[in-house]
Amino acid sequence: MSYVAHQPHDLLEAVGGIPLPEGDVVVEARDVHKYFGRLHVLKGLSMTVKRQEVVVVIGASGSGKTTFIRCINHLEKIQSGRIFVNGHLIGYREENGRLREDRERNIAAQRAEIGMVFQRFNLFPHMTALENIIEAPLRVRGMPEAQAREMGLALLERVGLSVKADVYPGRLSGGQQQRVAIARALAMKPALMLFDEPTSALDPEMIGEVLDVMKELAREGMTMIVVSHEMGFAREVADRVVFVDDGMVLEEGKPDVIFANPQLQRTQAFLSKIL
Amino acid sequence: MKGRTWITRPRPAIVLVGAVLLLIVLLSGCSARQGGTYIYDWSIFWNSIFRPSARILNGIWLTVSIAITGQIIGIVLGVFGALGRLAKFRPARYLANFYVWIFRGTPLLVQIMFLYYGLLVTHIYTWPDIVVLGITLPSAIQAGIFALGVNEGAYMTEIVRAGILSVDVGQLEAARSLGMTYPMAMRRIVLPQAARVIVPPLGNEFNNMLKTTSLLVVVAVPELFVTFNQLNGSGPASFHPFELFLACAVWFLLLTTIWSIIQGFIERRLGRGYGGERPPGLFDRLFGTRLRIDEPVIVARGR
Which of A80, B8, B13, B230 is buried most, with the most CB atoms less than 10 Å from its CB? Predict the structure, then answer.
């Protein structure tokens, strides 16, 4: 049996396009500090991501790159600094110059605008592929069921999984699960997509089908932050590669520049290990 | 699916037939010794089973309805108790811990006595007789249901908590990253998955509950056991404890058997989406021929 690569297409059209940008800057992180107990994980990380930009974040395990993108949708609290998405402070309210955690309802509303794809897919195992996709549009957005199903099926078709609509995640391969997970995030029409090592839990032969979907998404103009060591992907679609080391951005630039000619010794050492 | 282990005991039919044969021999052996002081009256046994009086039927009805109501109260309290124990909000945690501590740490019999007589004589609370749809619900039954339910809730708290903790944290994170609030994520994503883990021990609990209704003898609720106890105490069948309590046991066995069938049904329904072979059916369940050891849970997370 040969696998005929399905070409993902018109992903954003399936959800009726992406929301109109509120500004040119989508993500702005300023001097973010994060502790796990006494462990200082993010040590003043700053980063700006512009509209329709694709940023690939690389760095050694434990450098804080995953923690950082989890802060962007407030799955992790931060101890100081500010993170803005489309100009809105994420997770906190500022009162007299001090940060106070925002109300659950407001945080949830912010997260609804930010798509996230996890390393281990995290599909809901008690729901079919289609149910996974339409759950949040139905419950969070209050979309009518017929409309949600239509959109869900359109998304599944465009990631090449039409025939798997009524299949439970347990019966899908890793690559198929991750494609459903991307469709699930897209169904909320996010202004920004975060990818947390989306291919590192996959068997090698399944990495391509997931990267194809991500490349298509980048081509269609989605703003994306991708934590990944897929250098081929970074070379092909990234506008910028950011090297995070010890909780800070150490070096950044266009992928060919960073990969071919890293300035700092730490970057060179890291790249020599993974390239 | 690979990686599943099944415990298989050979020849369940032989075990079953053997058990029945042994029982018959035992019983007839007992009956043959009529030279003793005890006169067997097997018609009491057979009538109690095949031609149960209205009193017995009422006892069965009470046992079943009290057990179901008590269990439902227990489940509801258990869900809230578990959410309380897992809450970030400290007072909720303390309250839930206190509740479990008290009701798991004291005998159910003491709780029943205290909640009925204790509150009654001090006039702290007197259970009123309530009339619902023309049926009077006596105070003793209300107190009994309440005591059983609240006690059960303490145990269900721990069972539900274990069920919630068995769900990978990634599920809650995925739900929240899609914009769901904590209560919504719990209700739609985490609890349905926890249910699969909760149902087998819940089955045990309800099985126990059906039998534990007997403790309501102390507040004179005429459920199944109490009815047979009364039949033994006075009336035409009085002082036939052998036949009466054997019949009583058969009735309880019938109730718990029916429950195990229903439980199998629920488990198979909750197993949807998890692939693999179907859970043990009725025969396997009754005779323990094919009990599943659950698949290992894969947990791997990046940082």
Answer: B230
ipTM of the complex: 0.92
Q: How far apart are CA B45 and CA B69, in angstroms?
A: 30
For A65-100, how does the pLDDT look when each residue is reduced to its tens digit (9 = 90+)? 999 999 999 999 999 999 999 999 999 998 887 888
Q: Percent of chain A, pLDDT > 70?
A: 97
Residue B3: CA count within 13 A, CB half-sphere: 8
Find the chain B residues whose C-beta atoms sit closer than 8 A to any C-beta of A. 168, 170-171, 173-182, 184, 188-189, 192-193, 196, 272-275, 300-303
Q: Kindly provide the residue ranges of all beta strands, DSSP E only, lying in chain B, ordered along the sequence.
A: 5-8, 130-132, 135-137, 290-293
Rounded distance between C-alpha atoms, residue A218 and residue A53, angstroms: 8
Using one digit for the tens of pLDDT, what is the confidence trace for B142-181? 999 999 999 999 999 999 999 999 999 999 999 999 999 9
Angle between helices A204-219 and A174-186 (to 10 degrees): 20
Nearest residue to A152 via CA among A193, A110, A199, A188? A188
Residues A135, B170: C-beta atoms closer than 8 Å:
no
Alpha-carbon gap, residue A262 to A58, rounded angstroms: 13
First to last CA, chain A: 32
* Over residues B23-49, mean pLDDT: 74
DSSP per residue, B88-127: SSHHHHHHHHHHHHHHHHS-HHHHHHIIIIIHHHTTS--P
CB contact (8 A) between residue B274 and residue A125? yes
- Sequence-distant (6+) residues with CB within 8 A of B9 are B15, B287, B288, B289
Which amino acid, one-letter code, is at A195? Answer: F
CA distance B68 to B149: 9
pTM: 0.82
Question: Which amino acid, A246?
Answer: D
Which uninterrupted H or E stretch holds A70?
Answer: helix A65-72
- Pairing state of beta strands B130-132 and B135-137? antiparallel
Are B173 and A118 inside 8 Å of each other by CB?
Answer: yes
The amino acid present at A183, given as its one-letter code, is A
Biggest CA-to-CA distance, chain B = 80
What is the distance in angstroms between the Cα of B298 and the nearest Cα belonging to chain A?
10
Enumerate residues 6+ apart whose C-beta is below 8 A from B253.
none
Q: Tell me: the pLDDT tens digits for A135-163? A: 999 999 999 999 999 999 999 999 999 99
Query: Predicted confidence band at B295 (pLDDT cuts at 50, 70, 90)?
Result: very low
Q: Reduce the DSSP state of residue B4 to 3 states and report it.
A: coil
Evaluate whether A88 touches A110 at the Cβ level (below 8 Å). Answer: yes
**Torsion A223-A227-A229-A230 (CA) sign:** negative
